[in-house]
Amino acid sequence: MMKGKTLKVWRRDTEKYYIERNKDLYQPRHRGYYSHSHALYTAYFVEKFQNYFPKEFLKHEGDQDSLINLSAMHHKPESPLKLIISEADHLNSGIDREEIPEGKPILSSDVVKTP
Questions:
Q1: What pLDDT is recorded for position 99?
Q2: Is 10 among the domain residues?
Q3: Is 37 exposed, middle or buried (0-12, 13-18, 19+ CB in 10 A)?
Q4: What pTM did the predictor assign?
Q5: Gap between the Cα atoms of 23 and 4, Å rounded
Q6: Could you identify which of 2, 77, 81, 115 might form a hypothetical disulfide with 6, taking C-beta atoms 3.0 to 4.6 angstroms apart as the criterion?
């Protein structure tokens, strides 16, 4: 997952037409807004640098589970392989988080401070 300075560079350099053309495909919507922009930037990265990946990684039967779709659709899984990656992403996102004691409310300030 891209964070910090790397993500800022991708936001600046990602062509607007790519975002408009692909946000429905890779980004889920939450309360009327697109979320998980890193999924879209992942797709852009794979597409832009596809010549550096082995060709076997880029294509898969029906393209449903191609590298770009497996890596960028983990928040919109539509196949068993994408679901496995989605579950791994969810498990990984909580692995370095502090456990919140049962019954303690989760405040927005706590979420921001959680590494």
A1: 67
A2: no
A3: middle
A4: 0.66
A5: 21
A6: 2
